[in-house]
Design a protein that fits this description.
CATH class: Mainly Beta
CATH superfamily: Acid Proteases
Number of domains: 1
Strand order of the largest sheet: 4-5-12-6-11-9
Protein name: DUF3443 domain-containing protein
Keywords: Signal
Shape: globular
Strand content: 25-35%
Pfam families: DUF3443 (PF11925)
CATH topology: Cathepsin D, subunit A, domain 1
Number of strands: 26
Helix content: under 10%
InterPro entries: DUF3443
Distance between the termini: 31 Å
Length: about 425
């Protein structure tokens, strides 16, 4: 089992969000009990709440992934044994081709980033060589996509993208991670550790399907703001990379926004799991909201968000926080000094001596307000079972007190909806999240 903090995806160039304490530790997991049955919601007597309590777990079950607008989500060991990493399979094709294609498994589902990024080493050369490299400002286009736990560096290319039975109407921009030499990484604009390999990333790529249609928007399209904040770089001759403005049409694109019909959003559906961890969990990613008989809107509460899916009027412990529902974070991440932190073996995670419950009041740009209660168990206890990879009560620390990350544990037993920002079209829907 490999324990890694994966949190606060892809926000640094558009807004100030404090990053978690970062760690990627190979842990020798052994001993301990645990429920190793997939999708189990029962408790395990070898664990104890130590006098504490957990909130009632939601119990929604995913629909079958047998329709064209669905695909299977898997939470399990994946490519590198990282816990709480939801993955799907994605097929890419050279533009205009239906034969020069490749299906890539174990691509992380990330609802807090936008666009498809694939590790170049997992793409066969016949496909990779046929994906045109985008050009801008007289040089090839590259991107440094900055996450809280590091960055991905690589060229921007175009490909047709298919997920489940859905295919983009045309080739779209995507990032190829790690296909450029480390010497080309710009000194200004990339921060943290490089995550340009499957081992570093914990997946073969990242599928960003959050509320934005592309990954940077006006910040990178406007030359004035792009000069300091763009994550895109023009690289004449593949080197001497310098920040550049990039039109929206050339920015890495959310594939869902480019599907023909089911393009207004997604529903992430994961089953309920045991409070003490399960070996794996199988759910469903549904494309479109209200476009088919299997994707009707049935959420109890819906929140209008900013362009990036954030709930900026949320409150935790009396402090206004920016909350977000992020399948790309493998735990809840928030700041709470009353919770004990783990020892160095699990640095950055919480290890309370008894089960804990915390509540955050979620507030979007509309008038909707709702309280979300989460459960927290000691990460040390949970990780004691080397066969478990799906946890619904794993939590860690985020620096500062201005953010609250409802990571993958929040998704188990829920239908979580993401409505894409379509305000660029007159009368188009505002971005929203719902559950």
């Amino acid at each position: 089992m490999r324990i890694a903090i994966k949190a606060v995806k892809f926000k640094s160039w558009v807004q100030a969000v404090a990053a978690v304490m970062l760690v990627s530790t190979l842990v020798a997991c052994g001993g301990g009990g645990g429920d190793s049955n997939s999708n189990s919601s029962g408790n395990n007597s070898s664990f104890t709440l130590n006098g504490g309590s957990l909130p009632a777990s939601p119990t929604q079950q995913p629909i079958a992934a047998n329709a064209a607008n669905t695909t299977t989500i898997t939470v399990g060991p994946g490519v590198n044994g990282v816990v709480n990493i939801p993955t799907v399979s994605v097929t890419i094709c050279a533009p205009g081709s239906t034969s020069n294609c490749q299906t890539i498994n174990n691509v992380q589902v990330d609802t807090a980033s936008f666009g498809l990024r694939l590790v170049g080493s997992v793409i066969n050369q016949s496909v990779l060589g046929a994906l045109p490299v985008s050009a801008v400002s007289g040089g090839q286009l590259a991107e440094c996509a900055t996450f809280a736990d590091g960055y991905t560096w690589g060229s921007v290319r175009t490909a047709s993208v298919a997920i489940g039975g859905e295919t983009t109407t045309a080739a779209i921009p995507l990032q190829i991670i790690g296909d450029m030499a480390a010497s080309t990484v710009p000194a200004r604009g990339c921060s943290g550790s490089a995550e340009n390999t499957v081992s570093d990333l914990g997946a073969n790529g990242i599928l960003g399907i959050g509320t934005a249609p592309n990954d940077c928007g006006a910040t990178c399209a406007n030359a004035v703001t792009a000069a300091n904040y763009s994550n895109y770089f023009a690289c004449p001759g593949g080197a001497s990379c310098a920040r550049t403005a990039v039109p929206l049409a050339q920015q890495v694109a959310n594939p869902v926004a480019n599907f023909p019909v089911d393009k207004n959003g997604v529903i992430v559906q994961l089953p309920a799991v045991s409070n003490f961890g399960t070996a794996s969990a199988t759910g469903t990613l549904v494309f479109g909201i209200g476009t088919q008989s299997n994707n009707t809107m049935a959420a109890a509460q819906s929140f209008t968000t900013d362009a990036y899916g954030d709930l900026n009027n949320s409150v935790f412990n009396g402090t206004t926080v920016q909350a977000f529902l992020d399948s790309g974070s493998n735990a809840y991440f928030f700041s709470d000094s009353s919770l004990s932190l783990c020892s160095s073996n699990f640095q950055g995670f919480y290890c309370p001596s008894s089960a804990q419950t915390r509540s955050v009041t979620l507030g979007g740009a509309n008038s909707t307000r709702a309280t979300a209660s989460i459960g927290i168990l000691s990460a040390s206890m949970l990780f004691g079972n080397s066969s478990s990879y799906a946890f619904n009560d794993l939590a860690g620390q985020i620096s500062g007190s201005s953010a609250f990350d409802l990571g993958l544990p929040f998704f188990f037993g829920r239908y979580v909806y993401y409505g894409l920002d379509q305000t660029a079209t007159p009368g188009g829907q505002a971005p929203f999240v719902a559950f």
